[in-house]
Amino acid sequence: LNDATAISRLRDAGAIIFGKTTTHEYAFGGTTPPTKNPWDLDRIPGGSSGGSGAVLGAGMVPGAIGTDTAGSVRIPASYCGAVGFMGSYGVVPGDHVAVLAWSLDHVGAMARSVTDTELVFKVLAGIPTSPSSAPIGLPSVIGIPSAAFEPIHPAVRVAFEKGVDALIDSGVKIVEVPWPDPELLEAVGFILMMAESAAYHRQRMHRPELFDPQVAELLEQGATVSAGDHIQALRVRTQLATEFGAIFTRVAIVITPTLPCLPPAIGSGTFTPVEVGGQTQPLATAHTRFTLAANIAGVPAGSLPCGIQEGFPIGMQVMGRRGSDLGVLAVMTGIEQVFAREALWQPGAISTRFGGSDG
Q1: What is the pTM of this model?
Q2: Which among 70, 238, 247, 274 counts the fewest CB atoms within 10 Å?
Q3: Can you say how many angstroms the Cα of residue 283 is from the centroid of all Cα atoms in its chain?
């Protein structure tokens, strides 16, 4: 067996591979059983890279990697109080990495601070790890698609708005930007994921009993997607990417909450209803509502903690135009510095259950 290029680059850079963490089976889900959330062992860590998020939130390692097809690095980063980042589509090689959806998959970097996440990402992407040439700081203008935020859990809204207020106090101008139809984003993303994962696992599906039942069900449904529907999804994906390109001609950075909900209970499944501000959504819909867009558009996106509410860290997602990977990381560093100065979150903080402080 060969290491993935991402792993080879880490080894060559002197990284010590401490161990393997659990991922949701074939990355096709957002709960990562049996892994638990280090902030509350009765809650899920998110997924699919939930094991990486959990060990970071517990302070067990300084950095980790994961894969991200619809948010699978940023979701556990948000739930577990870590930083997660994926670059523009194709920047990090995906060879020897199990496929969920060829057209959406990324290998992403995770750590307990933006600085460490940037270091891991640079190694993964084959970028020299000398100090970034991108100026660290805040852009003068940041876009927020606030009209697309509802429904959202009140705790998430409070943490996000406090983070936004801190940025405004630091001199950032906030402007409203559009956001594509969330139902269209979800439909395109899930058609691509289901059809492409079913194609990847075609030979294995003669033994569906060997799969987790929910994963097997999704693969079986994916096998029913027609070639015409898959092609249509790819066509609409191109249109959506163009829409995002237009947004990034107006602003360099767009921020959203990473997730609209708090981590649900252990035992939740892909379609378990989760509470999002007075109503419920299937877990998969809530998890991907803000994150999936970056995978569809192929743009860099990261999540960093913007505070703690009801005992849980809350993530803020930061997105930029395609190719601006280091620029997005530089902005994330500036945002992290603001949050530290305003005592919303301290870089490197870990779960109080494992000896950390409340942010």
Answers
A1: 0.96
A2: 238
A3: 15
